[in-house]
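[audit] Reproducing an earlier prediction to check determinism. Same input, same settings, fresh worker. If the tokens differ from the archived copy the diff job will pick it up downstream; this log only records the rerun itself.
[audit] input (452 residues):
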Amino acid sequence: MQGRILIVDDDRGILDMLTLRLSKKGYEVQVADSADEGFKMLNKESFDAVLTDLHMPEVDGIQLTERIQDSFPEIPVIVITSFGSMESAVASLRAGAYDFVTKPFEIEILRKALERAVGNAKLRKEVNELKETVEESAAFQEIHGSSPAMAHVFSMIEKASKSDASVLITGESGTGKELIAKALHQRSRRGSGPFVAINCSAMPENLLESEFFGHIKGAFTDAKDSRHGLFVEADKGSLFLDEIGDMPLGLQPKILRALEERTVRPVGSRQEIGFDARIIAATHRELGAMVEEQRFREDLYYRFNVIHIHAPPLRERGRDVLILASKFLQRFSKHNEIEVTGFSRKAEQLLLDYHWPGNVRELRNCIERAVALASEKEIKIRDLPERVQNYKPSHVIITSNKPQELVTLDEVEKRYIRRVLDVTDNNKALAARILGLDRKTLYRKLERYKLT
């Protein structure tokens, strides 16, 4: 189909003739015998272009064109004018018409005018969609992917951005938890406010308390000046607490109190300071298991975990691996001014097969290295790191009819243990529970299979 056209004319003979001729040219045609009827149809159905006569009773073609431009500026209008009436033609263009044809007209001239109008409308639509895609991509920061797992993440970001509830982002290291936090902040009503981030595993407890709550001058040896803590710095914005699973147990009740009271007391001070910040927390640890083991406060866990967003590991994102790899390749080839344009098929397949224990972070480093070492315009297997080149998949083919694809029972057990460790982010206690082993037995098998 060439396009969907609405023809508006009070002459039934003209409508029938144009419907027949344009239908033969591949257009889907709808007709209206008045401007008012045509405008009503535009409100109910979608069209790629409108063809209207100039002279009609009550509302003429120029008035209809003006209405369409006000309500449906993306739909091009072609006006049929009288022969030699240049004044009418100019008036129609000033009203916003895309083009005009004069009576009597040749159907081929009209067809070309419609072809140009429909092509222009489709191009404008594609440009607008591209702008929306760019804007959406910018709003989601550096997060890319089209897998169902990532579609769920995008959906959760959209929903969570509409409230101020605390958000807990979980996922393995390197899955982009901070990018999700930034996207959530940018799309929320606090997007114009500060985004303050801190890694809870990066400093000792005494310094961490000062970072969170601030301190007054002279509170401790190096406190030469008073300073606000991160809770206050994030006022009217978002505070991102990364790796909360590593937060010292002694600090946790103070954090809980700050979240409940929405006030903090700087170290060395007796004064409470209020703050208005949204709390976004992230961890790669199993907080539920830590709560059971009394290594993380249950009440603080529920305070963080109002809305939960899980960042899926790269191995569960299917062909997102190739989307991300292409993005990284473009970035590094442009930055280093190296002409590398893509991947060989075998390299692509290996990228898909590899289990990516380091997730997106590992993929990024892998592509950066490959671009730097590439001797051709395509990334080959030899350009990838040895661990990727030498990778053997953890899955075992048990239905194969080829003897060379079958492996020993020891190899099956070895690969399965490695797979469970990958999924649990090397959490030995959780892996042992999944495998139905006690810890000593698991450690013996790790030693035996050299998986330590």
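[audit] rerun output stored. Observation attached for the diff report: The mean pLDDT is 87.
[audit] end
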